[in-house]
Design a protein that fits this description.
The structure holds two protein chains of two kinds.
Chain A (H helix, E strand, L loop, with lengths): L2 H16 L12 E10 L2 E11 L4 E5 L6 H9 L6 E6 L2 E2 L10 E4 L11 H11 L4 H14 L15 H13 L5 E5 L7 H18 L2 E6 L2 H7 L2 E6 L2 E6 L1 H6 L4 H6 L4 E11 L2 E5 L7 E3 L11 E6 L5 E3 L8 E11 L3 E8 L4 E7 L14 E5 L5 E4 L2
Parallel strand pairs in A: 3-8, 3-9, 6-7, 7-8
Antiparallel strand pairs in A: 1-2, 1-4, 4-5, 9-10, 11-12, 11-14, 12-13, 14-20, 15-19, 16-17, 16-19, 17-18
Helix pairs in contact in A: 1-6, 3-4, 3-5
Chain B lengths: L6 H25 L15 H8 L1 H34 L6 H13 L2 H14 L6 H25 L3 H9 L4 H29 L3 H6 L7 H10 L4 H34 L1
The complex binds adenosine-5'-triphosphate and magnesium ion.
Chain lengths: 388, 265
């Protein structure tokens, strides 16, 4: 850990712990999408979408390819006009405001660095458009170069830089004007895993330090979980759920979200009643009805429903454990990942469930192995009921 | 397909190139002929180039040609670039195909027809034929070549560069001038050189649209040749060939360089 990150650590902690303007009914959003629809000819890219983003928020748009993330961002930057609905920034309607008059800067998916300008000139470009005095421009460029640690490469051209360095230049260029909102379209797409993780934390530091609002597009769910205050999961031009990373993971509202964010086992079944505050679900995958505590769902008797359980919330045993929710099967596959071991267990019903166990000790005398008969169990409050 | 050397290929290649370049080679060769007689070799000499310098009519014509070429190529480059930008950028406006077709049409139109229609136009509007009418006519017919060259570069131009410029606060005009134009400059320069050389060696359109006092070099050569070929004319033709070759080669090199800079990013 270097000195700057050490100095920053407590600051981020304090900000992140107490930051939740979306729960405050009095708070006014900085960015508001109001029933926005965008069509390209016949194709609908964004459909009747409403979304509020607050000042200083680190907000992620997450979704599969082609779900409309870039389109949504381009409507905020001003490169596309909504077919219907409107976009507001700090209460001001942005309809008809051209991109060069919006206090929003974007880091492009392809970086879009100007190939005929040096790194320093790329960063200075936006400041020159504002006709700032030369001294001020130079000072700001210096500061940005320091921020992204590229002081030594100021005179290089973009084609003389590595992918990671280009990404930093693009970031510095977008940051130089200190916009109210910074839009980042897959900012880390071109980086390898290690550099990616480092940069994720750098981005978070930067966002807190500069007090800016970040809207980040990604289709990497881990990246979204790591960085954001809140995440919007999109599918086919609509928002399926907006929530904090924790809520999204532990309380996904639909099957799409549950399956898109993290790994999950889905056991289909039918509601068989309510008992001691828990739902009873009959399923072909278990000999006895499963019990699930999920107060959020209101279900009718006989309604088809899915019991969803994350692999790490299941346990694997040689002897049938006490308590509810026990599945029986045979180990088909074992994946050793170092920190985790993942078992694929083939149930009598034909379904396969994944169970992951943390490898807490270095040596296990008699580990569970291939083709063994095992029992898989989970607690009633570890599962989620999904009816959609 | 294997590219193997065969006598058949070699012969056809030789014959083809001979067919193309032998006449030109003869002109160049005979321009250095010491003899007064055009078809009899009398030893090597540069005397006709000297005579050329002292021939006022030819010198005058060369000067007119250069001025016309420079002026018309400049205007054609400006207009042609604008047309290329409009055609590639403003997506699918109605009638786009028609416009694109109309830009290309002058390239395939017989020169006699282009010349004749321009002549009719100048007569109709009562414009006195001379230096300016040739310049306008050359601008008209070279513009489409500039458009084609610049358009082929713009098609592969990354739009997000311009968007990035606008995102950083540049108006569309400033974005074009500070980002797009420097990057397509080689193509624009190639277009200019092409227009320049096309204007310089045009005879047909110039004959239709020129008037007294604005005889271009190709026109002068043509009229003198009808009275009989003199070695002086060979020297003038050789110089013209040199100029055109230089222009076309430079245009080709610029286009190639443009493609390379693009491939690097
Ligand atoms: N200019 C356009 N013309 C026509 N269709 C478009 C245009 N831009 C986007 N689309 C369509 O709109 C939909 C959403 O595209 P968008 O680029 O927003 O997806 P995305 O979520 O950013 O995907 P990715 O993760 O692959 O970048 C896609 O189906 C795409 O084909
Ligand atoms: Mg995208």
């Amino acid at each position: 850990m270097n000195d700057t990150t050490r100095a920053l650590r407590p600051a981020i902690g304090a900000v992140r712990r107490s930051f939740s303007p979306w729960t405050d009914p009095q708070a006014r959003p900085l960015i508001r999408f109001e029933s926005v629809t965008k069509r390209f000819g016949e194709a609908v890219a964004v459909e009747d979408l409403s979304l509020d983003i607050f000042e200083r928020e680190f907000f992620c748009l997450l979704g599969p390819s082609g779900c409309g993330k870039t389109t949504l961002m381009r409507m905020l930057a001003g490169f596309e006009e909504p077919t219907a609905g409107r976009v507001l920034l700090a209460g001001q309607d942005l309809t008809g405001v051209p991109p060069y008059r919006r206090p929003v800067n974007m880091m492009f998916q392809s970086y879009a660095l100007f190939p005929h300008m040096s790194v320093a000139d790329n960063i200075a470009y936006g400041l020159k458009q504002d006709r700032l005095p030369r001294g001020e421009i130079e000072a700001r460029v210096e500061e940005m170069l320091r921020l992204v640690q590229l002081e030594k490469l100021a005179t290089r051209r973009p084609d003389q830089l590595s992918g990671g360095q280009r990404q930093r230049v693009a970031l510095a260029r977008a940051l130089a004007k200190r916009p109210k909102v910074l839009l980042l379209d897959e900012p880390l797409g071109a980086l390898d895993k290690k550099l990616r993780e480092e940069t994720q934390f750098e981005l978070m530091d930067l966002q807190v330090r500069l007090g800016m609002t970040f809207l980040v597009v990604t289709h990497d769910q881990e990246e979204a979980m790591t960085m954001s205050d809140r995440i919007a999961v999109m599918d086919h031009g609509r928002i399926v759920q907006v929530a904090t990373p924790g809520e999204l993971y532990e309380q996904p509202r639909t099957r799409f979200v549950a399956e898109f964010v993290g790994d999950i086992n889905i056991l289909e079944g039918k509601v068989a009643g309510m008992e001691e505050g828990g739902w009873r679900v009959e399923t072909p995958h278990a000999s006895q009805a499963l019990t699930v505590f999920d107060p959020d769902e209101v279900l009718g008797h006989g309604q088809p429903v899915a019991v969803a359980v994350r692999p790490e919330k299941m346990t694997i045993h040689r002897q049938r454990p006490q308590g509810p929710n026990v599945l029986e099967g045979e180990v088909w596959d074992i994946g050793y990942l170092g920190d985790w071991t993942v078992y694929r267990v083939h149930l009598g019903s034909g379904a396969v469930v994944r169970v992951s166990c943390a490898n807490a000790s270095r040596f296990v005398a008699d580990p569970i192995t291939w083709d063994e008969r095992v029992f898989v169990a989970f607690a009633p409050d570890a599962a989620i009921l999904l009816s959609r | 397909m294997a590219r193997r050397f065969t006598w058949f290929n070699a012969t056809s290649l030789t014959l083809g190139f001979a067919f193309l370049y032998l006449p030109i080679l003869l002109v160049v060769l005979y321009s250095f002929n010491a003899s007064q007689l055009v078809t009899v070799w009398g030893g090597f000499s540069g005397r006709w180039y000297g005579a050329l310098l002292r021939n006022d009519a030819l010198r005058e014509a060369a000067w007119v040609t250069l001025r016309v070429a420079f002026l018309s190529a400049t205007v054609a480059t400006f207009l042609g670039t604008l047309a290329a930008v409009a055609l590639t950028r403003y997506g699918r406006f109605s009638g786009r195909t028609l416009f694109t077709g109309m830009i290309y049409a002058p390239m395939v139109m017989p020169e006699v027809i282009t010349g004749l229609s321009l002549l009719l136009l100048f007569v109709a509007v009562g414009l006195d034929r001379g230096f300016w009418t040739v310049t306008i006519a050359h601008t008209t017919f070279t513009m489409c070549f500039v458009t084609v060259v610049v358009q082929s570069r713009l098609i592969t131009f990354d739009r997000s560069l311009e968007e990035a410029a606008m995102d950083l606060g540049a108006t569309p005009l400033r974005a074009f001038l500070s980002v797009t134009l420097p990057l397509i400059a080689p193509a624009v320069a190639a277009g200019f050189l092409l227009a320049f050389t096309l204007s310089m060696d045009d005879l047909v359109i110039a004959s239709f649209t020129s008037g007294p006092g604005a005889t271009t070099l190709p026109m002068r050569i043509y009229s003198q040749v009808r009275l009989g070929v003199t070695p002086e004319i060979n020297a003038a033709a050789t110089l013209l060939i040199a100029f055109v070759t230089l222009g076309v080669t430079a245009a080709a090199l610029l286009t190639k360089r443009a493609a390379q800079t693009q491939a690097r990013l």
